[in-house]
Amino acid sequence: KPGDEVIGGNKTGAYAEYAVLPAASLSPKPAPFSFAEAAAFPAAYITAYVALVVRANLQPGETLLVHGASGGVGMAAVDVGKLLGATVIATSASDAKLEKVLEYGADYGINVSQGFRDKVKSLTGGRGADVIFDPVGGDVFDESVRCIAFDGRLLVVGFTSGRIPEVKVNMPLIKGFSVVGVRAGEYGRQFPERGRANQAAIRKWANEGKVHPHVFREIALEDWREAWRLLTDREVVGKVIIRP
User: Fold this and answer.
1) What percent of the chain has pLDDT above 90?
2) Is the pTM of this model over 0.90?
């Protein structure tokens, strides 16, 4: 009804002061969140939830390796991983960004520009990571195959490196791990009831104050080019929010 604080989304048309959306696409803004945090929340956290809860079945005590951990989705994966009781190893190509992710809650940080396989093995007593959250692809995926635990789950979330990797199928056979694709939005479209349940679960966490979207900066709508500059120059930790 008029005056309700809600959040919603669409594939296009968000760079505007006003938007018209179907009522079914809206949900109440989580009470603990500012509007900026609410804007940073839905896409990142439903991706992390579907990846870690639905697709990987991450368990308390397991080790989660999060690549691209300083990005919006990566930080959500760190947040959800800690909430689920995992030990979280975060990676980034920037020491400064790793410091921020460690402050955010990750247990360990590794700079991938120096390699990460041996460090992951060392941190896990030689076993490797139980679950690997990979939105990067390319060389990062290739090296991940070398440091995943037996019966591990390697989550394919994206390819920000620009190279789509390939898997030699003898590796999943020998090491007994699974390569699992993650498309959170499509999952909800294919399985509407499950999708609604997933959305309800993350909203419950949000309203209980259990998750904490990280807003790097709020930028006025008329300065939207600055938001893109920050992203292009790889300065962002978490999410940049454009505010009308």
Assistant:
1) 91
2) yes
| Own/partner long-range contacts of 197-205 (Cβ < 8 Å, ≥24 apart) | 198/46, 198/49, 198/50, 198/53, 198/54, 199/27, 199/46, 201/49, 201/53, 202/41, 202/42, 202/45, 202/46, 202/49, 203/27, 203/28, 203/30, 205/45, 205/83
Report the topology of domain 6-42+189-243. Answer: Quinone Oxidoreductase; Chain A, domain 1 (3.90.180)
Average pLDDT over residues 123-128: 98
Q: Which residue has the tokens 């308390």?
A: 60
- Residue 88 three-state SS: strand
CATH entry 1.20.1420.30 includes domain 45-185: no
8 A C-beta contact, residue 155 and residue 184: no
Neighbouring C-beta atoms of residue 20, cutoff 10 Å: 7
Partners of 134 in beta bridges: 156
Helix axes 72-83, 42-49, angle to 10 degrees: 50
Question: What residues are paired with 180 via a beta bridge?
Answer: 155
